[in-house]
Amino acid sequence: MLIITILLRLLPLLDFIFVTTLAQNPPPYTPSDLILINCGASSDDASGDGRRWNGDAHSKFCPFNSQTSPASEASQQDQSIDRVPYMTARIIHSKLTCTFPVLPGTKFIRLYFYPDAYSGLSTSASFFTVTANDYTLLSNFSAYLAVSAKTQAGPYLFKEFIVTVWEDQELKLTFNPSLNSFAFINGIEIVSAPDGLYTRDMDNPYTLVNSNIFFQLDNTTSLETVIRLNVGGQDVNDTGMFRTWRDDSEYIFGGSGLVHKWRDDVTIKYTKDTPAYSAPPNVYITKRSMGPEPLINLNYNLTWHFPVDSGFNYLVRLHFCETEDVITGIDQRVFFIFINNMTAEEEADVFFWSGGRDIPVHKDYVVAVPKGSPSNQDLWLALHPNMHSNPTCADAILNGLEIFKLNNSDGNLAGPNPERLTVPAPPEQHPMLVGRTKRKEPSHVVVIVGSVVSVLFAITLILCFSVYRPKSKAKDKSSMLLFSYTSSSATIALSLPTDICRKFTIAEIRASTRNFDDQTVIGSGGFGTVYKGYIDSGSIPVAIKRLASYSKQGIREFHTEIEMLSKLRHLHLVSLIGYCDDQGEMILIYEYIPHGNLQNHLYKTKNPPLPWKQRLQICIGAARGLHYLHTGAKHCIIHRDVKSSNILLDKNWVAKVSDFGLSKTGPTGEDQTHVSTVVRGSFGYLDPEYYRRQQLTEKSDVYSFGVVLFEVLCARPPVISHLPKEEVILVDWARKCYRRGGLDQIIDPQLKGDIAAVSLNKFGEIADCCLKDKAIERPTMGDVVWSLEFALQLQETAEKIDNAGDVVSESQIGSLVTQEETTTNDDELFTHSGGPVSGSRSTVSIGRSK
């Protein structure tokens, strides 16, 4: 007894370690109020989870009647959807208030919607407002549009709200149809919750993230649940408040991180600050971490993104629990927490917060999402290792997450309805520019040496033409694209100029692919399978990309691809021939590219290796395509997914940039330097500055292209986790070797003896400059094009000298390189020295080795 007394006196030193050890399945919270109404049903019935729902035919809460609020069954009785509470509804034609005499305290209100047709009425025409006492929960709400915008399968939804009912107050839920419209509701659920579950007392306010402003979140605040996730685990239901914790895979950026479930026999030890009803044990025994490779972890963030309404404050609750045996004390796993590009925590240490292993803890943050355009934005969360305290583990973890929208000053929680997607007019084209840079374009003087006079004279003509070529103007006056869809049939309606983008019927597509025969599959595209087909009586081969399954992401990429490619025509961009939107299909038809993508000719392939000059020519072509995107239209177009698998090779080995599903228009105003947007792209190719700051510029494409350049040179993927640490990330390894003068040691073995030293060094210099940490220090794609052409010319010159049997010194090589007439600026992006030279420091043979 004495020992227990002593322990209890010591525990206040770490008051968050007042541990109550519970069984694996803790006793559920018992709600004081539990009301389940199956609207439109004439009798009681059980839902799939075994709970009993009351039919509302003689409801004591809602004054329904057959004239103004008739009961109805859904016209489509979908067997994949729970019958209770989704297959019956009340259709409400005039303002109606349901009154619930509940006990005072915090209540969950859940409203269930299945926007099907009822009694001949299409719910696409249903718009209504819902209030709960003094709070507006929904305003001019369309369940039809809300379901259409869902990314998860299932044409139904429920909305969850949290409100407080005061002493001597009833909960009044009012449905008010908009003008010339009607409301409908399938199910109503009211469940009490522990007071203070998500709120704090007046003397314990929150602080807004990245500010010193106090934020009062007490029982006068109403909340709407945006998301509730079981991070790293499957869907989980808790029994006391009947909350659902969803799998997080839909929201994790790029599928990154590893999921874990540690020790099935673990007992979660809840505390007074994190009681058993905070989250189920299964939330705390599963998690997502960054992975076991410290070098990789230090070069990316573990990131999630969530669609939210702008103009509101949000409560973000993060759930943590250390369950790994390797973590035995504080400062062993420490990480940053960033919310919406703001630092929420610099030294997140779960062991320190909780006081030990298997002890759960949650942290709350309030963040403001300012009102802006578009009205729906992404709120993002990112974790990154903090190595300042020399932790033993370069990692970050998360077990669970909840996000709530908070009512504004007038009690409103309602956001706008999702918008139907529309395709804006394609960008007007203007003359293609050589480079978009403020520095003066250099003119070049050729120094003629010995046997290479004629060769260098030709180079001079090429360079002069590239700098001074005349400008042409082409302005497009075609009509705008129209795009809309509905979720029930996934129907897409597009109107495009037929001379630019041809519309195909599904019958034509089936005929051209032998009804999507597996034998015609040639690969997988950005959001579907790619087939080889033939059109126009079998005379023209095409690549046909078919949307794999109905999804919001697929629709967005379909829309973007058409927007970007329908009017852009360039030798080094893949050509969009047409599209098909019959019978709910979303199909894009491109020119057929017989040699596939560049990656398939670099590694893990049976294709013969590409010679160095051909690799240079492919890089030059791809760079020209990107340069055209950045400068050849009225507004800059940023590709956002530059990688070797998105560079295709036609029958003549001409490079063509492809896959524009993630592309975005760049800054449109003179005073704009970037576009703020959620991060998109491919792991290994992402610009780290864009990743950190969510500020997109064309220099993000330049960075990704720099990765491709080293990929081409070394014939290996951007990341190989099983290599020694310093070699795992290609960018870090190649740049280090280049700066040490050892780039020739890591090139593709198939290129040994094939690359002139000066060409190799110039190529390495270009790639290194593309990969500079700060975007402002990187070259433009115009600069990259010029320098790659120069590297090719150096290679060709070296081959001619080699054929003559000459061996020249490094200083003589320098004299063969074109020099600027004017003094080079200190901040010149590319030097003409070629950077560190591979090979001997005195004499270098610039031909192939014999």
From TrEMBL:
Keywords, comma-separated and alphabetical: ATP-binding, Glycoprotein, Kinase, Membrane, Nucleotide-binding, Serine/threonine-protein kinase, Signal, Transferase, Transmembrane, Transmembrane helix
CDD domains attached to this UniProt entry: STKc_IRAK
Taxonomic superkingdom: Eukaryota
Domain Protein kinase per the UniProt entry, residue ranges: 516-791
Family matches, as Pfam families: Malectin_like (PF12819), PK_Tyr_Ser-Thr (PF07714)
Protein's recorded name: Protein kinase domain-containing protein
GO biological process: response to metal ion
PANTHER family: OS03G0124300 PROTEIN-RELATED, OS04G0586500 PROTEIN
Annotated SUPFAM superfamilies: Protein kinase-like (PK-like) (SSF56112)
Subcellular location: Membrane
Membrane topology: Single-pass type I membrane protein
Position of the signal peptide: 1-23
Species this chain originates from: Manihot esculenta (Cassava)
Residue positions binding ATP: 545
